[in-house]
Amino acid sequence: MNVPYFIAKRYFQSKKKRNFINVISKISMVGVAIGTMALVIALSVMNGLKENIRSLYGSFDPEIKIAARSGKSFEVTEALIRSINDVKGVDIITEVVEDNALIEYQDAQMIVKVKGVGDNFLLEDRLSDNLIEGKLKLKDGHVRYAIVGRATQLALSIPPGNEFNPLKIYYPKDIKIGTVDPNQLFKRKSIMPGGVFEIEQQYTEEYIFVPLDFALDLFGLKNKRTSLEIKTSPKHAVKNVQKRLRSLLGEDFEILDRDEQHASLLRAIRIEKLFVFLVFSFILAIASFNTFFALTMLGIEKKKDVAILHSMGASRNLIKRIFLTEGAIIAFTGAVFGLILGLILLFLQQEFGLVSMGMQSSVLEAYPVKMQFTDFLYTSCSIIIITFLASYRPALLSSRIKIGENL
Predict the structure, then answer these.
(1) How far apart are the C-alpha atoms of 227 and 221, rounded to whole Å?
(2) Against a cut of 0.85, is the pTM above it?
(3) In sequence order, what are the beta bridge partners of 197?
(4) ABC3 transporter permease C-terminal domain location, by residue (predicted)?
(5) Cβ–Cβ < 8 Å for 219, 97
(6) Which residue range(s) make up the domain with 395?
(7) Of 214, 241, 261, which one is at a domain's C-terminal end?
(8) Could you give the angle at the alpha carbon of 245 between the alpha carbons of 239 and 248, nearest 5°?
(9) Same domain for 256 and 273?
(10) Alpha helices in 164-237 (DSSP H)
(11) pLDDT in tens, 166-207
(12) Average pLDDT value for residue range 373-389
């Protein structure tokens, strides 16, 4: 028989009426339950926001991006493309050039990032789910089309289905000394607006997609590219393909997966999640003060019982374990109820979106949540540590009660 657990359970389930100690124990249990529920929900919301950001960027960013470690561009040869294509797991290679440029539509102007992509970009099927108007095409015979963001379309007042007025794109030339003609300062090219996409505000405001040959002529590039975007085969893990590419290309290139392309943002979310965990753990610690007071008062009330146990041969360690077990019963009972309530609320939020973000957004309407086993593990460890710290002092004092003074 587990004597400490048996006695601690009897104390916890005491039937005495108007037992103030039991009231404090129940209040402590409720406080732990609420704190645990809040901690689990807060961590799950942070997970949901992180995954939502990943999904938003995942529909725009490539699985692997190859860029020069120094400089804006690098030279691309047929031999380089062939060697990358021979890497196991590489499915599609898209050549990319991008830079800032001024676009004009009738009397409206704005600065955007013009991203020139190869014909196989559409084979990656990254924008099809986010196309809201027009057709997903870059070329139709000899006609070139630009795929623009929703915010860009609204800012420039581009009418849907426009087939008459082209977009004018201006890019600065290499200015020579003595040039005074404004027409010599910029290179201008025209392209028809085509499809309209909407993903995340940053992208819809900043980017337009154009054919690669159009962008190369606009930027005055020949064999240079700003990046190569890789789509991997479904049968191969992205991390494994990334390692092979790093081995092939060496230190002159950055080989970035989707998370590494937004490393600073994801790092900020992880730090924010850490602080959320620490804050709610501190709230749990405050709630555990009730456990400290309950055990302290229980030790005072049960002095006679402790003295009797001592006289029957119980060691100080056994008495200490009784009160530590009592604290564990109070805390873990509250923690279990808190975890169950948290799981129920998270499930309801996941299925029905009970709590809205409070703003009109076609991308995200309700707070996203995602439950992870590690969060429950860290929450449990936090509760164990806090419970031990709150229970140790009262248990130690109770174990020092003298027989002669309490019998």
Answers:
(1) 13
(2) no
(3) 131, 149
(4) 278-401
(5) yes
(6) 3-57+265-399
(7) 261
(8) 145
(9) no
(10) 201-206, 212-219
(11) 999 999 886 555 555 556 678 999 999 989 998 888 888 889
(12) 90
